[in-house]
Amino acid sequence: xxxxxxxxxxxxxxxxxxxxxxxxxxxxxxxxxxEAEFIGxxxxxxxxxxxxxxxxxxxxxxxxRHLLPAARWLAWLSLLSFAAFYLNQSSLALIVLxxxxxxxxxxxxxLNEALASRLIVQVRLDYGKxxxxxxxxxxxxxxxxxxxxxxxxxxxxxHMMVVAMGLMWLMSLLPMTPPxxxxxxxxxxxxxxQVWRRPNMKRFLLIVALLQGSHAFYYGFxxxxxxxxxxxxxxxxxxxxxxxxxEIVVLAMNRQWFEAMTARRLLLAGALCSLVRWTIxxxxxxxxxxxxxQLLHAGSFCLSHLGxxxxxxxxxxxxxxxxxxxxxxxxxxxLMVALLLVxxxxxxxxxxxYTFGLMAVVVxxxxxxxxxxLTEYTREx
Length: 381
Hints:
Elements: H1 3-31, H2 36-59, H3 67-83, H4 91-104, H5 108-122, H6 127-152, H7 155-172, H8 192-196, H9 201-213, H10 216-228, H11 233-252, H12 254-258, H13 263-283, H14 287-295, H15 297-314, H16 321-351, H17 355-369
């Protein structure tokens, strides 16, 4: 199987599962008997475990030849970890299972991105067009599982997660030809500590942590909030799908529209879209405004993510790429989201939808940190 088809398929299957997990897992936890504050704690603990898992898994991958075996093991263990939720749904069991699952399952995200960064160099992969299959699958999952839960109940969230992970494991077993390999004269990848010490790396990580972390309340509580405002789960699925449809357009047009933009400009555009988006969502739940806010997902998430990927794949030396992907996933997509999820769980019962406004406040420091170039001293001589 060609590298492009293999990676596109893995993106599609992972984000199909993620399109179930992100909007609907809190609904399944509620179905299992968890209250809003406990859900926030569970999601927050899960994100902390995600951070630790990303660092643990990705720190052991120091060469391109390690990527495919790691994908296969992670897919298999992820399948087992979700299946374990059938066994016990007590409060203690949910805590243990959420931590265990989040150590394993989310590490598939930076692993796939590391594969993409490798294939960009090795076979000139068009990242946007490979990644958009993940976004398309995310929409399918949003709509399909929204409809399933509307008709058959929230237990279908778990059923579909197990099906998705089973398909991903089977896909991972297929061979990639040619497989990812080191380039001639390329040295072994840097350790996480070496990557952390690179110029501008800490500022970059704080910026992307603030931008991606600002999505925490949306990820964890938007479905619950909109359901309480009278929207059916199928409508919520359409709203989530609309946001990712806007993301697909940006990914498809990445080379045509954004190839000349620096990482800093992409991140700034993402920050501005985030400010507008969270302000709208904190102000109204009218469907027309929610549609506009969801279209801004193309900026708040997608442009921010493209900016991060551009910095990692274009502005860093090759030996720093895998480590940078690990830190980005662990800190920006993991730890910061975890902290803000826990905060959201505490604030939501008091503030309700106004919690979105606090997510806009989180973005403001990122705008200030982006006042100067990220790449001035990035490459080492």
